[in-house]
Amino acid sequence: MSIRVAIVGPTGYTALHLIKWLARHPKAEVTYLASHREQLPHIAGEFPELLGVCDLACQPIDAPAIAKAADVVFCCLPHAAAMAYVPKLLDTGLKVVDLSADYRLTDVDLYERVYQTQHADRGNLAQAVYGLPELFADQIKKAKLVANPGCYPTAAALGVAPLLKAGLVKPTGIVVNAASGVTGAGRSPKPNLHYPEVNEGFSPYNVGGHRHQPEIEQTLTAVAGQDVRVLFAPHLLPINQGILETIYMDPVHGAVSEEAVYDALEEAYADEPFVRVRAGFPNVKHVTDTNFCDVAARVTGGKIVVFAAEDNMVKGASGQAIQNMNLMFGLDETLGLT
Amino acid sequence: MSIRVAIVGPTGYTALHLIKWLARHPKAEVTYLASHREQLPHIAGEFPELLGVCDLACQPIDAPAIAKAADVVFCCLPHAAAMAYVPKLLDTGLKVVDLSADYRLTDVDLYERVYQTQHADRGNLAQAVYGLPELFADQIKKAKLVANPGCYPTAAALGVAPLLKAGLVKPTGIVVNAASGVTGAGRSPKPNLHYPEVNEGFSPYNVGGHRHQPEIEQTLTAVAGQDVRVLFAPHLLPINQGILETIYMDPVHGAVSEEAVYDALEEAYADEPFVRVRAGFPNVKHVTDTNFCDVAARVTGGKIVVFAAEDNMVKGASGQAIQNMNLMFGLDETLGLT
Amino acid sequence: MSIRVAIVGPTGYTALHLIKWLARHPKAEVTYLASHREQLPHIAGEFPELLGVCDLACQPIDAPAIAKAADVVFCCLPHAAAMAYVPKLLDTGLKVVDLSADYRLTDVDLYERVYQTQHADRGNLAQAVYGLPELFADQIKKAKLVANPGCYPTAAALGVAPLLKAGLVKPTGIVVNAASGVTGAGRSPKPNLHYPEVNEGFSPYNVGGHRHQPEIEQTLTAVAGQDVRVLFAPHLLPINQGILETIYMDPVHGAVSEEAVYDALEEAYADEPFVRVRAGFPNVKHVTDTNFCDVAARVTGGKIVVFAAEDNMVKGASGQAIQNMNLMFGLDETLGLT
Amino acid sequence: MSIRVAIVGPTGYTALHLIKWLARHPKAEVTYLASHREQLPHIAGEFPELLGVCDLACQPIDAPAIAKAADVVFCCLPHAAAMAYVPKLLDTGLKVVDLSADYRLTDVDLYERVYQTQHADRGNLAQAVYGLPELFADQIKKAKLVANPGCYPTAAALGVAPLLKAGLVKPTGIVVNAASGVTGAGRSPKPNLHYPEVNEGFSPYNVGGHRHQPEIEQTLTAVAGQDVRVLFAPHLLPINQGILETIYMDPVHGAVSEEAVYDALEEAYADEPFVRVRAGFPNVKHVTDTNFCDVAARVTGGKIVVFAAEDNMVKGASGQAIQNMNLMFGLDETLGLT
């Protein structure tokens, strides 16, 4: 029996990738596309690449109708919009993987300060599980509501967590220098995302003020058992998909060997199918259209440098969402993701 | 003494390129930037690349004020908006190079059908000169109002005109297969010009229905002295600047030699500084950021194939506009363009 | 039971894509990678993206050893090299899908003239089947040796064949204006394929002299039952994967309706899972990393214009090779390709 | 009177940019192109974009002949090759701007360790001046031999030097996270620079081991008057031209204001025509094809973060070389560079 999947907010890039990946999933099937547009498009009219792949017309966001058609919902709405619909969906008994930021930050005050909006669903926030399977698989398996992590926070957490756990790096002074392809900024056209403005360009943005910084800190603090602070510096890359993070950390003790760093990484990911610990430098190209996160490390100039590469649309969004779904339904977490 | 230059509509890509090129022009100086925005930006606030290059704040579009500050106006407004301002500018005695389509088509009915708007300035239309210097330099020198050609029509005319003049090709059945970089579509963000939609893509658009088709036909008809018809098929290229046209024509007589075709091209452009007749295949790369149009030809498969490459922002727009200005003011046409 | 697959020449782009797609195929498994390199690499050393996807070290090209390990061979060697190995592979009883040009042209003299080398395996050439499933599925099902079509010829044949069959277009004067991403030129670095030489460029190459021109003509001649001649004009696109062909044809009768053209296309492809007849213009983006070929048509300027888009690495190479394998082994031709 | 310029090693990218920029220089003229190739090409055969721009055939590297034809030489050979020719050129009385690394590092032992070759011209090394005009203009004016800085070191020095001079940042623990376009790696095709390998990719390389690291340290040490150590982490960007460096530093005193950092930058560059201190984030796009270096700063997360953007081919190579030539000949340093 297939898991029946609904997607709320089906006209953005994360939904597009969910539909593509789920079309290959042996035990899941997209049955309902729920849009709040007035003119409800056929999904292949919206995304011509889905012609012959997904033959569904969008329908209204009607929780009871969705509950009849589906077992799980991927909510691909932007933050604030998501928490307006998620409670109704949960009430019907549906499981929910929410790809927005609405259920990621456990500290409501922090959420409200960072996202500049009131949290409208504190009840469900309290029971939401942060959906990073490599760290929280046990909780995800039992969850009704999974908050799918942000793209940048996924790579940062996978790169840094093992070293914090192993007590190799200091919890302060961590610099996460990151670069992302343009799909990470969504599908709505904007002046700074207009083709000629991005192409042949490269620039930092929101350094020190990006909303993913507190999310990274929350995860690493949970892992380290002490307060972790990072300086997060994102850059916009002239590519479609992919994130590379180059993360600079101070060793706890004056000197640490590269071997010790690799030991920590390899031990952490020995049984993780989607994290590849690599000797060579990662390249976003090597993980494009895969659910892998590649990590590598160097000890140089008195710092520990960790590199983490992922596809922001897959391990950084839709692939990880499916990985979470697999866990929530007791399936092998790799199903449909190879 | 420098020519004092005003630019109306200074916040688009053609204006940006005018400002960059004019900053290097030894006998011209931008003195006035006229915008219809409510909030008038400093031009380096709008285009950070112009910091230290052009230190002008935008001002209102005020014809008398412009006439005091300038000798010539480059009008970079979109069609329909242009013809609302050009008459007032001409009335003050200013010379005008209009980069919109409003004064290109001499047949008013055709203009109105193609651009779906009434022509509001028939008087000046009658005296406007089509600003393709390689074909109409004598008239341009005497013109008060020059209609700067479209980007695609420039390459098409330069590629085909010599062969029509030499009587080598049939005036019908001409196929202009064209591809352009994205700056040709302007600076306003649109869904189809959003970075991830263009990058790694390539597609035709408006085949048989593009507004540049009648403009191409008008020029070639004038040159040939008989009715010329073309099938114009534009494509969108994932690059910033550049146009390549691959043009298929039937020889008038069953057979024609490549040598005869090259003779016609070389004769036409022997004294033209901006058209390079090349033995090898043109590449848009070779003309990027230059005012050159490269042309080459092959005779194969019973057809004459001409290739023409230009930078849509330079020879296809702002560079050609400066070339026209040079001619209108009695200067060497290459001034500031090398 | 899985089909056991060997790949000869595993370090090029077509092999990379075969390995990626076969990793998802439910009834096939790569068991042997045969390379003629002296230093035999592990495939994930050669292609880091295959780490965790394919855990095979390359082995020598040893026909008996391959025959023990595999049921079918994909030969990814360049032309001339392929026909040195294919006979030995066939002799062991293996089925072979050859991705080179060595078995595509049935006229040996033509092959030798076009590829400037003697044909070394005329015996098997005579029994080879041209592997374009939409046209020759019945023969492919029974074939021991399939010559996988060239990338450009696949799109050209799929776009033009239905119109020739329907008697709508003239067999002469056909212009195939084509553009391909860079993977089509292989994995060996060359000056003209160096990143800065391709990026932001676009140019024609080998117009009238490309080796795929006779291959296109052979297929269309077979389909039309009369001699078909095309003018083939390829261009190099600054993208990785994708081909778009814009094909200009003269209607047999003075006038033809767009509807009649679409009727012919839709009839031809009603039951073909991998050809999508589209109303809108195709875009290479819509077929990237899929085995689809998208076709559309316009009647304009006295011509029939057909557009065909495919991924040169998938429907134009490795995907089609798997489609052929599926047919040769009696499987559903879409298996592993969705 | 024009400065007569020779270029040794005219077939690489730095030479191409020198020729393009010098074609616009009002007081300099390229008179001699000296190549060590056996087949000496016409420069427009080698670079079709130079057709109609530079009409010179390459000649042998013959010091006396060069001395007759030129006043100054730009040496564009790779390291090791450069120092084989520079002594002979200097002996004829020619001034030399060397774009290789051979005369950059004043510590011979360090040079030999880093470049893994013996230094063959210690005599001239001792008198060479490091050609970063914003720091060493006085010495450059009197120099016979200028070592043109590396691309990465130029941006790093311009971004960091003012803060070290102002005593705001610690001399250790400096992290230079850098990204460069592909022209920085030269014009020779290599597997890792093949178009499909770079396009849609992004990766670090040589982290902690790049040859520009000691060059950066040398300049900053000279400026600071104390030993400065950096961790240099370069990345390869899928663009043609441009470098962005994001530089993380620890403040000397616990806290420093962003205002103090900007004061230091603005004071340092108040009279420097080619460094633009910007409030907004730099983008490589804003400096492409210009000799500008844009710098900006943030104080966040306990660090001072400086951003520096330049075109690696202009301020990072050929433009800076011309700036140096201007100074060596007593001209305004901006001549030909606007």
Describe this structure in words.
- Four copies of one chain form a homotetramer.
- With 338 residues, chain A is an alpha/beta fold.
- Chain A has two domains: 3-127, NAD(P)-binding Rossmann-like Domain (Rossmann fold), CATH 3.40.50.720; 151-312, Dihydrodipicolinate Reductase, domain 2.
- The first copy, chain A, is 35% helix and 20% strand.
- Chain A is built from 13 helices and 13 strands.
- Chain A has a seven-stranded mixed β-sheet. The first copy, chain A, has a six-stranded parallel β-sheet with strand order 2-1-3-4-6-5, with helices on both faces.
- In chain A, strand 12 (293-300) and strand 13 form a beta hairpin.
- Chain A is globular and about 60 Å long.
- Chain A starts with a strand and ends in a 10-residue tail after the last helix.
- Chain A binds chain D through residues 172-173, 175, 177, 179, 197, 200-205, 207-209, 229-233, 235, 237-242, 244, 246, 248, 281-285, 288, 298, 300-303, 305, 307, 309, and chain D through 172-173, 175, 177, 179, 197, 200-205, 207-209, 229-233, 235, 237-242, 244, 246, 248, 281-285, 288, 298, 300-303, 305, 307, 309.
Gist of the model:
Four copies of one chain form a homotetramer. With about 350 residues, chain A is α/β, with parallel strands linked by helices.
β-strand number of chain A: 13
Poorly predicted parts of chain A: none
Question: In CATH's first tier, which class of the largest domain in chain A applies?
Answer: Alpha Beta
- The count of domains of chain A is 2
Rg estimate of chain A, integer Å: 19 Å
Strand order of the largest sheet of chain A: 8-9-7-10-13-12-11
CATH fold description of the largest domain in chain A: Dihydrodipicolinate Reductase, domain 2
Give the N-to-C terminal Cα separation of chain A: 20 Å
Order of helices and strands of chain A: EHEHHEHEHHEHEHEHEHEEHEHEEH
Largest interface: A-D, 44 and 44 residues
Q: Report the β-strand fraction of chain A as a percent range.
A: 15-25%
Give the CATH architecture of the largest domain in chain A. Answer: 2-Layer Sandwich
Q: Main β-sheet of chain A, in a few words?
A: 7 strands, mixed
Question: CATH H-level name of the largest domain in chain A... which superfamily?
Answer: Dihydrodipicolinate Reductase, domain 2
The backbone outline of chain A, from C-alpha atoms, is globular
Our count of helices of chain A gives 13
Average pLDDT across residues of chain A?
97
